[in-house]
Predict the structure.
Amino acid sequence: MKGLVLAAAAFLFLVTGSAVALRVYPGNKEFRVFLGAFAAAVAVYTGAFRLLPPDLGFLSTGWMETAASVDFWNGLLILVLVFHGYWCFSYFACLSPSMGVMVALRLKSREGMTRVEALAIQGSDQPVNLIFQRRLPKLLQGGYVREEAGGYRLLARGGRVAALGSFLKRLINAQVGA
Amino acid sequence: MLKGLVLSGSLFTVWLVVQAAVFHLVAPRKTFGSMLACFAPTVPLYVLLYWVSPVDLGLLSSRFVGADWRLGFGNGLAVHVLLFLTAGLFYSHADRSITVRLLIELARAPQQRLTLAQIQATCGVEVLMQDRLNIMLANGFLVARGDRLVLTPKGWIGGTVGLVARKILRMKAL
């Protein structure tokens, strides 16, 4: 139970810390903020687990795990799983094109929108769609693709991600080109 | 605590195998619904197995036994549900990631090279958004009224969650 209580506290710290950091972070590599907050939360969890007493000053004997290692790793496992969910949720809620449409419709109330208006949210009327304005520079900076003669060529690093992606899509029987 | 973890881990592994088989043999149209339908029976099964199996499962040493059974039971159940949610997110990422799709299209292209116009024609906003709008219509988040799309109550909740999250987490579209 000690691990669970500390994991919950570390997760609250993680959410608060990342929300505050995102407000002041000037760049667009938000994953660094999330991973930084996660690393800090793991450090806080580990430190607190080592320093605090097994009963945390309020747990009864029955609610204390007998093996400290099980307690520690179980708390860490739950922290990792919840963090992964929070991370994915944050990206989905803030950047997903589907969520973008729902948020726009939510703001428009009953008025609704046409498919053309929904497409325009993602910059369909601009030379470079919004979804690529965000992603292509990151792929270039990360060495996944390079600009070449008015186009983009896949580099070895990008090829490895594409191969992994194709494998995962085959694993779940999803259309590889979808 | 370990008893619950062993049971949830075992049931989760069985579910993964069954779900992989379902994906390949049935190719369900509503994938998350299929995942949920296959996973749901593992929850009562976990409860039953926890109830009928011995405290040490016949394999755990005595030092891993002794905490209140409600702690082990609840913890195992929580981990079981969290593992399922993680698998759902993993599925969503593998199936829906725009970046992965872009890289796959580049890998499949002649000389692994595409112009921006070709990228946008293959997996650009036109293709992607039509696909996503159809999925949201099929899954009951949106409904078509004439040529306009409006939120269903389920979509309204989704939109509200997104709105609140975007106010708290200031992530930039660019």
Summary: Strands of chain B lie at 113-115, 142-145, 148-151. The longest strand of chain B covers residues 142-145. The radius of gyration of chain B is 22 Å. Chain B touches chain A through 87 residues (CB under 8 Å).
